[in-house]
Specification:
This protein is mostly helical. It is about 80% helix and about 0% strand. It contains eight helices and no strands. It has helices spanning about 1-45, 60-80, 85-95, 105-115, 120-135, 140-155, 155-170, 175-195. α1 (about 1-45) crosses α5.
């Protein structure tokens, strides 16, 4: 009984620790979101252009063609490391097709453009959009992993480790699990060395 009550106390302490870490993460994300929204407002102000007229030859087939072409053009820009251009094209795709099956993928690639530019705070925010807006997306596990890697890049290993643990719990079958485990081990080794 003593053992089980001490285990219970240990679990409670761990849970409290995790809850406070999650609270910290939420506060950081909120601060980043505010900064991001302010930046978006500044960026959108000069860009108010009239909508382009659409060709009406065969509406449905042209929509599919346009949609595929838009997505491909954005991906081509990304592959060529033209990250800003790719991001703008993916954002245009999401605006044009907000309910499309590729919208969550487009959001993931937007986050990847920030990561590619080493704008890790921008990447963290963009990955968070996937996790909040598209929780059932097949990109969610990848978004969690890359969000954790972004936190590592900005030197916040504690938050990164919490996110990696969430990835292991939420997506135990995903292909990202092995890398997540390795990253947790690396973080533990680094923090272990600091304690000595």
């Amino acid at each position: 009984l003593r053992d089980s009550s001490s285990e219970t106390n240990l679990f409670k302490a761990e849970l409290t620790n995790i809850e406070s870490q999650i609270k910290d993460i939420k506060e950081k994300l909120n601060a980043l979101e505010i900064r991001s929204k302010e930046a978006e407002k500044k960026a959108e102000e000069p860009k108010k252009e009239p909508p382009q007229p659409r060709s009406s030859s065969s509406p449905e087939s042209s929509v599919v063609k346009d949609k595929g072409a838009m997505y491909e053009a954005a991906y081509d820009a990304f592959k060529s490391k033209r990250y800003k251009e790719a991001r703008e094209k993916y954002e245009a795709f999401i605006k044009e097709y907000p309910q499309d099956e590729l919208t969550d993928n487009a959001q993931f690639w937007i986050a990847e453009t920030y990561y590619g530019e080493k704008d890790y705070e921008g990447a963290i925010l963009a990955y968070e959009v996937i996790l909040k807006k598209y929780p059932k997306s097949d990109k969610s596990s990848g978004a969690l992993l890359k969000q954790a890697l972004s936190f590592i890049e900005i030197g916040d290993r504690k938050t990164a480790k919490t996110i990696l643990k969430k990835l292991l719990e939420s997506y135990p079958e995903s292909k990202e699990v092995e890398l997540a485990k390795k990253k947790i081990e690396e973080i533990d080794k680094r923090t272990g060395k600091k304690k000595k």
